[in-house]
Amino acid sequence: MELKSATWAPQVWKWTKWRRTRSAAVGCCRRRLQLTTLLSLTREPVESESRRRSAMAGSDPLVARPVSNQESEWTSSSVLTDLLGNFWVAGLAIVIMGVSGCGKSTVAALLAGALGCSFIEADDYHSQANKAKMSNGIPLSDADRVPWLESLRDAIGDRLDRGEDVAVSCSALQLKYREILRAADRSYNPGDYVTCRVKFVCLRASAEVITERMQRRSDEGKHFMPASLLQSQLDLLQINDAEGITEVDATVRPDDIVRDTIAQFREKLASTVPPCF
């Protein structure tokens, strides 16, 4: 039986629906040329089996008998299951978190550059109303944060669905906020932090260091967050040991933080990491 490009894509979808994830189907669309080559390698064994069955039925062994839709579906699905099990690589989202002024954006942007993946700046997803409140020194409420985090979650999920890595800069100060972001991994079960495809690295520094950075940045007009809101962020910051979040000294050189982060998650990344990392 010949598996043509017009027929194998629907079979991929059926297989992934049964697996309760659409990630592999999306990935296969992006890898059409590679999968077509792999499928061609399986064509001869499938045809040989068809001829063997035809011979047993008394027909010409060189002419493959018609194959039923059910049998075609089973054969295609089983072949693709074997192929995709080794071929598909899931993406990973690495969220650089911490209070404003700790260096999240700098580290996340460098990380994205090193991995050759996309970079998401969480501040870009704030509404104008949120930015206005913070600019006026008013802390955000959960009602302000949830829509922001949900839009950020959807942006991360789009990358993961395509089998891509993504570096994210987001404060993500509390567990309930991080749980919203973890839901970008559609297979995430709450509390199963080990297998979740959304990982967190927290940058920490003393209040004096952060205040100096925020004041300098505010004076230069580079950010809407005033230093007066630092204490409210420090009060919110909460990390549970069970989450397994890596905590890093924010005063370390950003390049070193990026190198150590890549080393930590190297085997989980879809990106091909250069040897220098």
UniProtKB/TrEMBL annotation:
Its EC number(s): 2.7.1.12
Chemical reaction(s) catalysed: D-gluconate + ATP = 6-phospho-D-gluconate + ADP + H(+)
InterPro entries: P-loop_NTPase, Therm_gnt_kin
UniProt keyword terms in alphabetical order: ATP-binding, Kinase, Nucleotide-binding, Transferase
Pathway in which this enzyme or protein is active: Carbohydrate acid metabolism; D-gluconate degradation
Domain of life: Eukaryota
One GO MF term: gluconokinase activity
Pfam families, per database record: AAA_33
Family of this protein: Belongs to the gluconokinase GntK/GntV family.
Protein name in UniProt: Gluconokinase
Source organism: Urochloa decumbens
